[in-house]
Amino acid sequence: MNQGKLEECKDFFRTLYSFIYLLGTHLKPHVAILNGVTMGGGAGVSIPGTFRVACGKTVFATPETLIGFHPDAGASFYLSHLPGHLGEFLALTGAKLNGAEMMACGLATHYSVSEKLPLIEEELGKLVTDDPSVIEACLEKYSDLVYPDKNSVIHRIDIVDKCFGLDTVEEIIDSLESEASLINDPWCGSTLRLLKEASPLSLKVSLRSIREGRFQTFDECLVREYRMSLQGVSRLISGDFYEVSNFQILNKHV
User: Which of 35, 134, 203, 234 makes the best surface tag, with the fewest CB within 10 Å?
Assistant: First the structure.
């Protein structure tokens, strides 16, 4: 964008979203091993697949509102189909989930301790079939039972639904502030801080994106996200993403 190459930006997003669509609709089973950070495009090429294996090193988030963008790469589809209004919470705050939390909410299909991941890869490489039931059996063989920590957002789904199920960003923030004054829970304060650190326009755009995604197909979500992403980088409506990106580039070179 600094060089005025808008068409190259379009090609980047078109290529990424087309690949994610292919991944999410392809009949051949796909196994994503989430051995570390799984955010943004990394989540986009993992979550739409057939199987997602989380582990103790897995860190999932959609932190785009913090950089003046929106959860893309199919996020408006899969976040909108999470239990209750957990998708709105994740989209707006950029909060992180670990492997156990991903299992609990359905973002991951299996959980294995990190030490078993090489064994999973080795056994998958020996399979001579793409039968999903055979792959499922292979993954189950190395799966471990895991539960979210007592402080996890998974155990706060009632308050998440109460606050993030409201119609507007302003109402969500007011509701969280009200809850924070009623209950002594540091989670409310940390959630409010995340919201107030984000781009105000990105919060509004992302909330609407998740709400629309709940009633759209996977391909409809990707088409809409493509248009949103082009608006995000064009600076015709807002320069938030452009400014944050340039700031990050500047810091990288200092």
Answer: 134
